[in-house]
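In the current project phase, the collection of sequences with tokenised folds has grown. A sample record is quoted in full directly below:
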Amino acid sequence: MSYQWQFNGADIVGATNLSLTLENVDTNNEGSYQVIVTNPYGSVTSSDATLTVVRSLVVPWGWNYYGQTTLPPGLSNVVAIAAGGYHSLALKADGTVAAWGFNYNGSTDVPAGLTNVVAIAADGFDSLALQANGTIVAWGNDDWGQTNVPVN
């Protein structure tokens, strides 16, 4: 038997195995999937299987005196959150960070070009990000040296 997987009615190049595995799925992968199975006696096309990507939804709650529950416009695809004293952080699936709330000494000023983030943390007025390469990036209040990350 042979197999040919299709996406929205078009062949997926190289997708000729018994099963189809999608990696790093995002909204571009939403749609109908089917497989055509062929043997010496003919072929049959499966019924459609519809893939819908569920977007991460952050629902804020609590005291909003400093904008802690006022989410940035368009915030989506969130995989983790962290809460500081008066600010919050979100780690997005693409490895970037969003911040909102009280910007005391730059606690919500995410450094330009910060990417490949795998974990986040927030303290009273400072923020931290761990990048995939093991680098820690810190920003915000530095009254006691909390954003001076030691280098090994």
